[in-house]
Specification:
alpha/beta; TIM Barrel; binds S-adenosylmethionine; binds iron/sulfur cluster
Length: 330
């Protein structure tokens, strides 16, 4: 049964217009705050096919979703990721306003042009440090030169780029200011992210937790931060850095909670619809897709709208969920 209203409103009246679709839970890196060194990934048979992902995207856009972000795991680690982007890109201008991607950039040199042609204009790239040794330490498997080359390729094809940097006490805190300045030189915005307690990792997250309230004070001592009206409906707040001309976003779900304005839901690579990053509850869209009932996906999404929780209750000392950020899609 399709609901009377095509638009998605959750039980608290929040309009859901933004969906993050995970293409894979796999990754070619093992960032310490994200994953344990040894991870079990989903068998390929459990993940949605390209066609199923396209069907879901069309179903969401028909229900008023205007922004889709492809993520993971590392979305570009999935073979055919650009084909998926091209398929979803056909919805641009037909209900979909924006198709974006979050990537670690390790494979971006090969795919930047294809993604641009698919209609992606803006991407988020994760880069926690520009120091090669620290990069190897944080990502365990990553190669900084390759990532910087991917970033250069993305810049060349004309993406608008935002760098995502997880703030890690004692690891990259001294690099925040230089990173902001480098981003300004490159024409990029920067978002700083507080570590979130999602999934078991090999370390104690509290050791590396850096409250962004403290970082904001330090940045304000050096630069004039003008509050920006830019909002994404997520936990990020943005400031224009007057002297540098770029924008800095602070994603601080721990020190500031903005769940009341939440506009998003996330679909894992195996088709579980998660209504909140910080809760286990989910609705099985893969079962709906494979049921043979054309109305089943809409019905499952409606069910999810009635169950989206009011807010997360992150506590850094205990993982809020057993699943890692790489499963839900960051
Ligand atoms: N692999 C891609 C990447 O790294 O950009 C996309 C997926 S990754 C899960 C998305 C974002 O989540 C990245 O910016 C990453 O730094 C961030 N992230 C992963 N685990 C996190 C955690 N526990 N707390 C905060 N941010 C996290
Ligand atoms: Fe991979 Fe992204 Fe997680 Fe790093 S943050 S391990 S790149 S999914």
């Amino acid at each position: 049964m399709t609901s009377a209203s095509p638009v998605l409103n959750d039980q608290f009246g929040r309009r859901i217009s933004y969906v993050r679709l995970s293409l894979t839970d796999r990754c070619d890196m093992r960032c310490r705050y994200c994953m344990a060194e040894t991870m079990e990934f989903l068998p390929r048979s459990e993940i949605l096919s390209h066609e199923e992902i396209g069907t879901l995207a069309r179903a969401f856009v028909a229900r008023g979703v205007t922004r889709i972000r492809l993520t993971g795991g590392e979305p570009l680690a999935r073979r055919g990721a650009v084909d998926v982007a091209r398929d979803i890109g056909r919805l641009l201008g037909k209900g979909l306003d924006e198709l974006t991607l979050t990537t670690n950039a390790s494979r971006l040199r090969d795919h930047a042009q294809g993604l641009r042609e698919a209609g992606v204009e803006r991407i988020n790239i994760s880069l926690d440090t520009r120091d090669p040794e620290k990069f190897s330490h944080i990502t365990r498997l990553g190669n900084l030169a390759r990532v910087l080359d991917g970033i250069a390729a993305a810049k060349d094809v004309g993406f608008r780029i935002k760098i995502n940097m997880v703030a890690l006490k004692g690891l990259n805190d001294q690099e925040i200011l230089p990173m902001l300045e480098w981003c300004a030189e490159q024409g990029f915005d920067l978002s700083l992210i507080e570590t979130m307690p999602l999934g078991m990792i090999d370390e104690d997250r509290t050791d590396r937790f850096l409250p962004l309230t403290q970082v904001q004070d330090e940045l304000s001592a050096r630069y004039s931060l003008i509050p920006s009206a830019h909002r994404t409906g997520g936990p990020a707040r943005y400031w224009q850095v007057q002297e540098l001309g770029n924008r800095i976003g602070l994603i601080s779900p721990l020190t500031a909670n903005f769940c009341e304005g939440c506009n998003r839901i996330r679909v894992s690579a195996s088709g579980q619809l998660y209504m909140c990053l910080g809760h286990e509850d989910n609705v099985d869209l893969r079962a709906a897709l494979r049921s043979g009932d054309p109305a089943a996906v809409d019905a499952a999404v409606d069910l999810a709208m009635g169950r989206k929780p009011r807010r997360h209750t992150f506590d850094l000392t205990t993982p809020a969920t057993a699943r890692h950020m790489s499963v839900t899609g960051g």
